[in-house]
Amino acid sequence: MSEQPILEVKNLKQYFKVSRKFTVKAVDGISFKIMPGQTYGLVGESGSGKSTTGRSIIRLYKPTDGEVIFNGKNISGQMTKEELKLLRTKMQMIFQDPMACLNPRRKVMDIIAEGLDIHKEYKTEQEREQKVYDMLELVGLSKEHANRYPHQFSGGQRQRIGIARALVMRPQLVIADEAISALDVSIQAQVVNLMKKIQKKTNTAYLFIAHDLSMVKYISDHIGVLHLGHLVETGTTDEIFNNPIHPYTKSLLSAIPEPNPRVEKTRKSQSYDYETSGIDYHKGTEHHVEGTHYVLATDEEFAQWTK
Amino acid sequence: MEQQRERILKIRNLNISFKTGNGKVNAVRGVNLDLYKGETIAIVGESGSGKSVTTKAVMGLLANNGNIDSGMIEYHWNDEYTGEPKTVDICQLSEKELQSEIRGRKIAMVFQDPMTSLNPTMTIGKQIMEPMIYHYKKSKKEAYEKALELLELVGITDAEKRMKNYPHQLSGGMRQRIVIAIALSCDPYVLICDEPTTALDVTIQAKILELIQDIQKKKQLSVIYITHDLGVVAKVADYVNVMYAGKIVETGTIDEIFYDPRHPYTWGLLSSMPDLDTDDDVLYTIPGSPPNLSHEVQGDAFAPRNEFALNIDFKEEPPMFEVPGSKSHKVASWLMHPNAPKVEMPESLKKRLQKMKEKGDAKE
Amino acid sequence: MTQSEALKKYQFQPEDFQLAQHRDALEVDQVMPARPAWKDSINLFLRNKGAVIGIICIVIITLFAIFAPMLSSWKYDDINTSIQNISPCAQHWFGTDTLGRDLWVRLWQGTRISLFVAVAAILIDVVIGVTYGMISGYFGGKVDSVMQRIQEVINSIPTLVVLTILLMVMKSNLFTIIMALAFTEWIGMSRITRAQVLKTKEEEFVLASRTLGAGSFFIIFKEILPNIYSQMIIMVMMSIPNAIFYEAYLSFVGLGLPIPEASLGTLINDGFNTLTITPYQMTIPVIVFSILMLSFNLVGDGLRDALDPTMKEM
Description:
The complex is a heterotrimer of chains A (307), B (364) and C (314).
Chain A (H helix, E strand, L loop, with lengths): L6 E11 L5 E12 L4 E5 L6 H8 L7 E6 L2 E2 L6 H10 E4 L13 H5 L1 H6 L5 H14 L16 H13 L5 E5 L7 H18 L2 E6 L2 H7 L2 E6 L2 E7 H6 L4 H9 L5 H6 L7 H4 L7 E6 L2 E5 L1 H8 L1
Parallel strand pairs in A: 3-8, 3-9, 6-7, 7-8
Antiparallel strand pairs in A: 1-2, 1-4, 4-5, 9-10, 10-12, 11-12
Chain B lengths: L6 E14 L2 E14 L3 E5 L6 H9 L6 E13 L6 E5 L5 H8 L4 E4 L3 H4 L6 H13 L3 H14 L5 H4 L9 H13 L5 E5 L7 H18 L2 E6 L2 H7 L2 E6 L2 E7 H6 L4 H9 L48 E2 L7 E2 L15 H17 L1
Parallel strand pairs in B: 3-8, 3-9, 6-7, 7-8
Antiparallel strand pairs in B: 1-2, 1-4, 4-5, 9-10, 10-12, 11-12
Chain C lengths: L2 H5 L29 H11 L1 H23 L31 H37 L1 H16 L2 H11 L4 H27 L3 H8 L4 H37 L11 H10 L6 H28 L7
């Protein structure tokens, strides 16, 4: 691929100092890249650092170490005004909680137009309104919804408003931080379909953060499995699903419930416990499996898992 | 072959409404439900379909603005000493009777979020022992021993040490185990699990479900699951009730619902479930959004979202039709009427169900 | 009842069992009716009888306080020794005091001053307290630590000591009393603001604003303030009776307004001196004072219930 990645994360570390003696290493040296128009699924359990990764990239936190290169510009350190503006307009985020991610005291019109207001991206009031209406239509809502308050919408509709708010800036990368996990399964499908449709139209790249592999499969081109701040396995969606190597990936895959009672009744999920497994992520190095498929392991572990 | 099934819970024509600023909301509209001993039923539906409200009514835990307009919730049990069968209508009980007789002792509940259902200022041990001391007037020592036993039952190692922990010192999965232990502390006959795994990580979800199944077998519990996740239902349920807009629209055994669904809403639910075996580009979704129950529902509540809606669906509410050849399978849809045109489920779903069946048969 | 019996009650039309062609309608999204949040709040408020009575009392008392002195033929500082200590009668509705001043006029004049003092003091409080709490809570970190320590130091000095010193050093007039009240009350206001800001600033919609590049100014005024103003209103409503009480208290211990000004506190104080001889001189201002206090508290309670967003959920 000769194309430039839209986002490249190199050895990103994000530590939080809890007290003088104690530091939480939420993200401990992870690297990946996202191509324009593609979706990278970042999967892991709670506490694996997946949300922290997203927030470090979009600079809600200041990364402890490592580089984040967005659109060819390093955005992990001090930024110039232009770089900051690039980051704040061309990279956007969709949040998890449809109840909390919209300001309850503002109208949908103002919520969606917020980015436009901040960066003064319109000349007339009509232009602002038109842009918001276009967005509402794109996410499957109508003009009339612009003058409502968030509490008048259902969860799925609110999440679509959140998407509209992010997309109005015409971003090149959208970070979806567990954007669907708070929704009912049937509504999740709606949101995922919508995101895919928009991607086709606008060629936006997604960083899709989730704890649930089943939806990730539908939307992602590449998947990174994150555990305790380390990327334990990365590869294309097919590579991960067809040939999982790392025991943690396997346990994640085995945990996906299948809507098939006869299969599900008898199946037992595989368990994986880092502490008793004897695996030390710090000792592991990246091993190449095939294509773009890599796994974090020591030489012995790798030999054992691929046997 | 078939044993006499012992009915524990019988809900008939339950109607519940809430008074809100926007007027009266009819959250539950004529629900019928049966629960038999040792069996598991699941209530599936979107949020706002009334599935939680129904079970809250069973526990007598409706919010202050909620009201049971009509219907009954009968609870059957055998007296502990004399062994004679007894019946009580939960709707008629006073708050005091509910507290001392029903909640915890006969019916216990496991909530969605383990963090908010535990008291952060009390140790785990105290929280498990308290209901036993309250309900059964057990001595502290007895209660302590029972608590240890329960913790082991829910798969917590070094129970003695854990008894002294506070909730925030434990992981999410561990907390949910504690919540289950508390629910079991008074030996209830019925366990209601309200989205017991939604707040947990996937790897732990399966563990908790397996745990509940284990305990159910050991203690002969009847379990009601409330969930929107058909994956969970597939794993645990014997009988499934699909709920939409405050009504049960389809009920049947798990096989009937998963391999031979009849209601268009069930079709939609099954179709929209992500499945690792299929490679469709676009997931199926049910168009539109659930109805606003503060308005009177004319005809079938699902009709506006139903691509197979008949003209009558907009005028009359469909009654429960029995599916020919089955005792348990019932569907509330005019499509089941003999005069209705033959409507088949969507082709893609048919293929998918076929595949599922084959896969299931291969397993067995 | 068997199935066929159940079906008998329906009268079927021939076209009933045809597929309804309504595919275009399928995609329509339903939403709940448009209803501004404040309408719900007002409804909730009006349903609370105590609060409604409270607000009616406040309005009536305020109207009297504004217009009664203007419409009366007497003035609050007209001394007329020939009509000392007259009991309530047709000419002097509430009687006169030891100096022959008309108590009807003095009562409403006093209420006017008391209300004015309280409202002015609270407004100053809100400005200082909210600003302080906002800065402290929003910026956090070292700024917060320093500001909190300063506040703790100020708070550790007993209020009464501060007030007494302040009123003894400065001339005791309306302005000094307002300042003295403002000085003591703002800390509570700033604490509540800070707590609210700390809670709100971690909400996802504030994070969303930050990822859109919003500046601190924008976030504070557009995102945080609208979400905490209801708490502010409640706090104000609850503080006003406090301020009225404090003013009365200061007057009662002799640190209040200079003669011949009247406030509810000075009236009660004056009446107290002759309580056994002319009980009406004290009872009437006490009754007005109590009604006012009670009303503000009731309204505050009602507002808290009405504005609390958790109450709106089903």
